[in-house]
Amino acid sequence: MDFFLQRGPFRDLYEKVVSGTRLNDDDALRLFRTTDLNALCAIADFANRRRNGLRASYIVNRYINYSNYCILSCQFCAFSRKKRDNDGFQLSAEQMVEKAREALSLGITELHIVGGLHPSLPFSYYTGFLRALKSLDARLQLKCFTAVEILHLAWLAKKTVRDTLLELKEAGLEALTGGGAEIFQKEVRSKIALGKESAEEYLNVHRTWHQLGGRSTCTLLYGHVESLEDRIDHLRRLRELQDETKGFTGFIPLPYQPDNNGLPVKHAPSGYDMLRTIAVSRLYLDNFDHITAYWVGMGLKMAQVALSHGADDLHGTIIEEYIFHMAGAKSPQMTAQKELVKAIREAGREPIQRNTFYEPIESISSPVTV
Ligand code: SF4
Q1: What is the rounded distance in angstroms from the CA atom of residue 301 to the CA atom of residue 134?
Q2: pLDDT tens-digit profile of 26-83?
Q3: DSSP 3-state assignment of 216?
Q4: How far is the CA of 105 from the centre of ligand 1 (A)?
Q5: Residue 168: CB within 6 Å of ligand 1?
Q6: Can you point out the beta strands (E) in the chain?
Q7: Ligand 1 atom nearest to 182, measured from its CA
Q8: Does 260 sit in the ligand 1 pocket, CB within 6 Å?
Q9: Does residue 367 have a pLDDT over 50?
Q10: Which fold has domain 54-353?
Q11: Among 66, 69, 113, 148, which is best to mutate for testing ligand 1, by the most ligand atoms less than 8 A from CB?
């Protein structure tokens, strides 16, 4: 491997990585454009192993979407519904507690909760379900809301983003999700998510949360109408905020799902595109500890392969997923813990169950009990 790295087409970039010299945008573009996936994989795997060894993590979690009603109509979104639609839903706090209670018996340590921008639910609905869920088990970590939901809740609460986050934190919010970053480049963002918050607003919500001591993940939606330069622009802005706050725990590239929405894109990203995006992310985001291969979007088999292309995390058991599946994802609704462990072991890595903050937690044979 060393011979390959030292003699391969990216010898200069390998030397940069070894010496801790940051890759620039031209380097990232060169890596994105390569057809030599093996050479790219070798250097990304080197960077990942140096940071994370052979460890690869997963989380035992459950998704809950509290509602799919949304006042916006992002072109790429297959999840949102209007009140006139007959397949819209909204859950009461009691229904969410019931879902959480069932999932706790399966050993989950995290609830991941997002929804649309609901037209009429009051702010107290959100603080109410956070409190109800947290009271089930103090160890249950609540990772909730995208940046645009936080802006919506701030508008509902008639408070600043900072004060809204403080109130949500006091009610039980422990981490923000990374969803909704989509692509930051302004014109492309308008083409796929007109009306959604700007890149600056997305980054500012996360900045404010980090300044309050909170942690969050972040994402990139790729494989639609963006260019490779747009992807790099997106990564650069995330890297800059991470330099400033160090508040991101991990980065999750999300392959676009093309079904049931208003964007004319024929195919989901290819396997090659998924792997090169993971690899370039690992190399360019030198201030991020973790890169997640999101099996819901990639499929578990491809996510497993990504563990040798720079990823060190497979995300979680999920249990119930709507957003990607309504847009055409063919992966199953959930993956059992033992399947994630098996996938990691087969890839030659050491499975580590983690918490919301990517910290190792108790062994898989000791599920959380209630
Ligand atoms: Fe609403 Fe989010 Fe869908 Fe946009 S992506 S329409 S904000 S649910």
Answers
A1: 34
A2: 999 999 999 999 999 999 999 999 999 999 999 999 999 999 999 999 999 999 999 9
A3: strand
A4: 31
A5: no
A6: 55-59, 61-65, 110-114, 141-144, 175-176, 215-222, 248-255, 290-291, 313-316, 350-353
A7: 5
A8: no
A9: no
A10: TIM Barrel (3.20.20)
A11: 148
Distance from the CA of 148 to the center of ligand 1, in angstroms? Answer: 9
Ligand 1 nearest-atom number relative to CA 79: 3
- At residue 171, the 3 state secondary structure works out as helix
> Which segments of 265-308 does DSSP mark as H helices, in order?
271-284, 295-298, 300-306
The crossing angle, in degrees rounded to 10, of helices 161-171 and 123-134 is 30
Q: What is the mean pLDDT of the chain?
A: 94
Confidence check: pLDDT of 368 > 60: no
What pLDDT is stored for residue 370 in this prediction?
Answer: 35
The reply to whether ligand 1 has any atom less than 6 angstroms from the CB of 324 is: no
Using DSSP's 3-state secondary structure scheme, residue 45 falls into: helix
Predicted pLDDT at 198: 97
* Other CB atoms within 10 Å distance of the CB of residue 5: 19
Q: Is the pLDDT of residue 354 over 50?
A: yes
Between the CA of 274 and the centroid of ligand 1 the distance, in Å, is: 23
pLDDT in tens, 322-346: 888 888 888 786 788 999 999 999 9
The whole-number average pLDDT for the span 219-223 is 97
Pocket test for ligand 1, best of 76, 196, 197, 198 (most atoms within 8 A of CB): 196
Q: Is 148 in the pocket of ligand 1 (CB under 6 A)?
A: yes
Ligand 1 center from residue 299 Cα (angstroms): 23
Could you tell me if 231 and 273 are in contact, meaning their C-beta atoms sit under 8 angstroms apart? Answer: no
Which range (40-49, 115-124, 190-199, 314-323) has the least confidence?
A: 314-323
Ligand 1 binding pocket includes 73 (Cβ within 6 Å): yes
